[in-house]
Amino acid sequence: MTTGHIEVLVNDWQLLNSADSPLPFYASQCYSDTPLPKEALRARYRYLDLRREALGDNIRRRSRIAHAARCFLHDADFCEVETPILLRSTPEGAREFLVPTRGAPHTLPTFYALQQSPQQPKQLLMASGVTDRYFQFAKCFRDEDGRKDRQPEFTQIDLEMSFVSGSNQAADTAWRIGGTEVRDVTEGMVRAMWHATDLKHTPLPKDSFPTYSYAEVMQKYGSDKPDLRYGLQIADLCTAVQGDPQFALDLLVCPQYKQDNRELKLSKRQIDQLLVGKDGQPSTIEHFKADRKDSPSLASLLTRKSSHLRHIQPDCRERIDALSSALHSHLQSASIYSGTEESPALDRCDVFLARRVRDMNGGSTEMGDLRTRLAAAFAQQDSSVINANPQILWVTEFPLFTQADEEKQEAAHGRWTSSHHPFTAPALEDVGRLQEALKMSKPSKQLIASIRGQHYDLVLNGNEIAGGSVRVHDAALQEAIMRKILELSDDETNRFQHLLHALRCGFDRFMAIMCDTASIRDVIAFPKNASGADPLFASPAVIEESSAVTDREQLAPYRLQRQI
Amino acid sequence: MTTGHIEVLVNDWQLLNSADSPLPFYASQCYSDTPLPKEALRARYRYLDLRREALGDNIRRRSRIAHAARCFLHDADFCEVETPILLRSTPEGAREFLVPTRGAPHTLPTFYALQQSPQQPKQLLMASGVTDRYFQFAKCFRDEDGRKDRQPEFTQIDLEMSFVSGSNQAADTAWRIGGTEVRDVTEGMVRAMWHATDLKHTPLPKDSFPTYSYAEVMQKYGSDKPDLRYGLQIADLCTAVQGDPQFALDLLVCPQYKQDNRELKLSKRQIDQLLVGKDGQPSTIEHFKADRKDSPSLASLLTRKSSHLRHIQPDCRERIDALSSALHSHLQSASIYSGTEESPALDRCDVFLARRVRDMNGGSTEMGDLRTRLAAAFAQQDSSVINANPQILWVTEFPLFTQADEEKQEAAHGRWTSSHHPFTAPALEDVGRLQEALKMSKPSKQLIASIRGQHYDLVLNGNEIAGGSVRVHDAALQEAIMRKILELSDDETNRFQHLLHALRCGFDRFMAIMCDTASIRDVIAFPKNASGADPLFASPAVIEESSAVTDREQLAPYRLQRQI
């Protein structure tokens, strides 16, 4: 036909297989303007759901993009090596899957563990010198409690290079840590994958992706994986204000706090932060206030883990003018529209004020979390507030050690943990401070928190899509870090396997962005649901007793039995 | 340097890491003419062993060859789809790995199972129409009892095409079953992989790989995966002999059996088979007789599962001449030298005689097994008896059902099992006979055994490197096969998951051949040993009790405990 489609004229036909009964739903009737059948139903009949053009396209796209990445890496002389999925169980086993093995009766049960990441075999492979450029599309497994959009099994592109350059704090460029070769390869690969999609994505920036330090993104965006598709920059009050910051603070918090007979003083130990919301129609905030079903209320935006957050609406002209003038330089970057030339009018904005600790640690601040929630709420009402162009950036110079990661605290028992993993090298500039800390019997929190690592994350539209680090290659330094800073026991040190942070869902997450879909389940042919179950294959399942074999007999070879 | 190597003149150097103590062994001292350190030691220090050039080359070669296969398949419009590794446990679970999952206390324990092959998700994927050309480098898992050179986890290239052509028994070509498109793609892929190796392999045949029927290879080579790099063809006595076969039989077995007052009569129900060994130096057989350590004794060649085998050395000139004349046409193909023009002199040969059942079933005959052992024994003394050129062939027209596979009999309880898997389509020519059998209440063994399937294996140098089949697409026929021929219970039929035969170690085995190494462990970076253990990571292991958590507490979330 003129459209390029082909029309077939049927002379004769034969029905090979007929459907006995109506299907649970019809992919051909899932139009883009009607809601899809319920997720649970579609999961149960995944093979019917896969008939939907949009979902099928994602699976086909995944194949092409994975191949583009592989071709790029092979052309760059990388060697793909498969590492074992059946690995060794470790004492911190709560988060890993155990695989019992058969054995003689009355001996202790033994287990494999499914690999959480190829970290250990990969390191040994690099040490063996088989290749100085390794990669793998690695299947990884985590037995995590159900969280939205985490899969118990997921795919990551794992790569490693030997003999990369060291850190260069004197360099002109923003990339001042080591491993520029890894940066270049990763950028090339991401470009190759980007190029392989059939969707009309705006091209990535032609130059090297911008690099930010952890300190900078935490201060400006309150997050170590900021979404730069919108503005809403955060500023420290003292820096943002032209003039006397205490005067500006008084202007902001009055009259709210004067009524309580409270005064807000600038803190020496904490920093007052400022964020200005959308210069929108007055209806924006009205929506929040009305607490409509499809729009979170302002109260809910503020109360979720927001002990220090305050929402301010200056209400008198004099005060507004004074504030507008004092905050003039901040207002432009604080608009939700990124790259806008105009400053929003303060009286049509929502101003938010918060405090944060001076030494930042962890993945986000309260203000940063608010920034994300505000943008989502604004975008729900007007999607144009989010820039359509992809925003990709590197974040580097993370603190080497942290006490703020909730996930890790469980195993850490109050000790310091590695922000990335215990093999990450310190920044060249901070080696002196690390050595100093190692010599002290009780180094100060501040000293340890100030040591930066040679760790980098690649962030796309607010999602961490890749991350890595330059490794410690000095065995003595490695052991000192483990024993003196991380305070690992002999057992933990011997195992070298703890608190391991590897990128979760790396390739799956990247594919979800490439396919413009919110859920990684839409880029996996047969995914598990949020609680880790597979409704299609009905797994996991109890071991069914057949006529011949009882449950007890089936567990016996593993030297296990049901808990009594 | 003139050799192309680079010599480095050192001005200055710095030792970054020193080895504290002597290494267990030195890869640089593993010369080709000295025996390697013991396998257990090399497995324990795999990262040192990987420094050996030969082993490292294999791992690098694997990467290149896998990429060549992927590129070929992508160019042929195949779509790579990852299927779940965590799948559902089935009642025949003894051979699969179970993965316990956490859950509420006092509920029944639930399990995933690690995929044995992507069979089920793959079929559903094809049914969904996401692609009509699927492939995957699939990680598969079998909890098998330790066997030499089987890995509990292994890699196979799994591919499937929709809408392939049906069987064509009238065709001129030897490929008379369906799925010629799969044959062509597989041949193309194997050629691409062959081409990607750096080893100087003799090229594969330019034409399509030769196709043999199961009946032909079983009759000529006594194996469904014959090694054609040597001759030693087997012949039926009645066909091989020019003249009276009973006369030839008398010539052969005398005087041995005359002494026992026994006579050997040609059997109607069984077939007498004949194989002639190497036309060698007399020393060959002397070696066997001497029972040297490095050479199996003739007795050991014959007694292993060889109830019907007889070894004959005609000892009188008159008898030799008469036999040479009667067996003239057989002698040439029965020489170990494949493609030789000359017939061996019978008095310098060993003649072997055996009986086999008329209707063949299973993977090999006694004579076929002897053929393999004889060739290995001859080759140990003179490697030139094995043709250096790779010998690749297709085997088709297998019997659809079997009662001879030892591995399957355990689960079969005396029933028929599928030679390949229960979804294999019958040959077009045999559909009538299958329908006939389905109508009978007790179809004869002979009738069922005569039905051939659309199943094909690719055999390289005596190793099955690929295999597959055209599927049944008629649900009624599929169910009839399962219920009436295979006699599966409701439970088994519902699960569709039993007696599953998928190619074991497909890609690993292929790589071992490409790398000229006997063991698949030499083409896997971190393999498991023969008992499924990994001495490097010391897995599987007992769950170690740490100070904080006891073994009992660690098992509790799975609702399991140690067997009491």
From TrEMBL, chains A, B:
Keywords: Aminoacyl-tRNA synthetase, ATP-binding, Ligase, Nucleotide-binding, Protein biosynthesis
Gene: MSD1
Gene3D superfamilies linked: Bira Bifunctional Protein, Domain 2 (3.30.930.10), GAD-like domain (3.30.1360.30)
Biological classification of the source: Eukaryota, Fungi, Dikarya, Basidiomycota, Ustilaginomycotina
InterPro entries recorded: Aa-tRNA-synt_II (IPR004364), aa-tRNA-synth_II (IPR006195), aa-tRNA-synth_II/BPL/LPL (IPR045864), Asp-tRNA-ligase_1 (IPR004524), Asp/Asn-tRNA-synth_IIb (IPR002312), GAD-like_sf (IPR004115)
The keyword Signal appears for this protein: no
EC annotation from Swiss-Prot or TrEMBL: 6.1.1.12
Domain Aminoacyl-transfer RNA synthetases class-II family profile as annotated: residue spans: 62-557
Designated name of the protein: Aspartate--tRNA ligase
GO cellular component: mitochondrion
Family indicated by similarity: Belongs to the class-II aminoacyl-tRNA synthetase family. Type 1 subfamily.
